[in-house]
Amino acid sequence: MEKILTNVRIIDPSQKIDEIGNIIIDEKGKIKSIGKKTKLSDASKTAEKIDLQGNIAIPGIVDMKAFVGEPGFEYKENFRTLSQAALAGGVTSIVTMPNTKPVIDNVSMVDFIIRRGRDKAKVNLYPCAAITRQLEGQQMSEFGLLKERGIIGFSDVNKTIQNTELMSRIMNYASDLDTLIMQHAEDYELAKNSCINEGEVATRLGLQGVSDIAERIIIERDLSLLSEFPCRYHINQISSKNSIKVIEKNKSNGIRFSTGVSINNLSLNENDIGEFRTFLKLSPPLRTEDDRLSLIDGIKKDLIDVIVSDHTPEDEESKRLPFAQAATGSIGIETLLPLSLELYHNKSLTLEKIIKCLTINPAKILKINKGTLKKGSDADICVFDLEEPWMVKAEELKSKSKNTAVENRKLQGKVKMTFLNGELVYSN
Fold first, then answer.
1. 34, 28, 29: which is closest to 5 by C-alpha?
2. Catalytic-labelled residue, pool 26, 187, 212, 310
């Protein structure tokens, strides 16, 4: 049955659209017509009318970095709870990380993940496989075989490929196979045993810090290799002002790559850690306010392409430990859009720029037909109220784990509906 969404502000950066209009979804769950020229009479007489009450509709969000606990860590998160949290946050496509148990580094694991995801999740799942076997940074995974089975790209998650010779081989193979490499930029030796950004806050709390040079060294090394072995290369998350400078220099030299940033590093800084708030122990760590502002500036200048949730569920027991021993990471898929909208409300970024980094940019990097509301594309739509105020309450979040970094934060902007292939899968 056709649907027509009326009385809606449509923002779609892929078509440079920002206008009041209607959206018609055909029986197959595809976009039939969109925009101010779309009339009610263009829909069939039996079409279901849904009044969106002046809210904003954007393409379903594409999140390039989220962890799902299946298999092995179902107690942290599973496909069902991940997809519930994602849809409540307007996220319709997710790139899942391979640090499961066992690790996703062989064909049988890929088959399991795809089958399990299809049965249990309501969102579009794009699994990543490990770059190296067992995430050990020693031996390459079978890129060709894994790609054939449906792998979207390769990542060692929060581990860095330390061996330069191995990294050049990886890039060479990735170039031949046209596959995406997603690197975590942090020199292992410099970052060893650290748990916070190096500086005044680390000294005051008596914690071992890591300098942003650990991030910069890996970025500089990899981009030097990239000039020799051009492949599809993506830096998962950057966190510092100095990294932005390196990226700017290399992009102006014509080297092609893409860059992501976690919403945590855009919304918080090291001062938020206060007195050992372990829920704010993250990787890369929260850095200075100066770094945070530089990251926002990096998005303005198109030096950063993607904003990710870096959704890392951890159970309560592993977080409520002394800071140095506590697990790293926070959940974030449900709060990704509202926290991003905060950057619009405080006039840091335009709405179009934010939505671009959440929709069409990640879709282009991944080479998937998502992140757009073009005629004929899948009707994956996120509808939100730009102004609605609310407060983050951990117990109300849909994730299985409740380790949010923004507990009790007052936000403005809330997801009202999420459509997946034309079906209404979430409504608030």
1. 34
2. 310
Task: Give Cβ neighbours of residue 136 (< 8 Å, ≥ 6 apart).
Answer: none
CA separation for the pair 161, 224 (Å, rounded): 15
> What residue ranges define each of the domains in the chain, with the CATH number in brackets?
3-57+379-400+411-427 (2.30.40.10), 59-366 (3.20.20.140)
Q: What confidence score (pLDDT) does residue 411 get?
A: 97
At residue 49, φ and ψ (nearest 5 deg) are: -95, 130
Per-chain mean pLDDT for the chain: 96
Specify whether 297 is catalytic.
Answer: no
The pLDDT value recorded for residue 194 is 94
DSSP per-residue codes, 187-251: -HHHHTT--EESSHHHHHHT--EE-THHHHHHHHHHHHHHHHS--EEEE-----HHHHHHHHHHH
pLDDT tens digit sequence for 389-411: 999 999 999 999 999 999 999 99
Tokens of 177: 């196979």
Whole-number Å distance between alpha carbons of 240 and 417: 35
Residue 222 is predicted with a pLDDT of: 97
Cβ count near 111 (within 10 Å): 12
Token pair recorded at residue 424: 């209404």
Give the model's confidence band at 278: pLDDT under 50 very low, under 70 low, under 90 confident, else very high: very high
Taking the model in full, what pTM does it have?
0.96
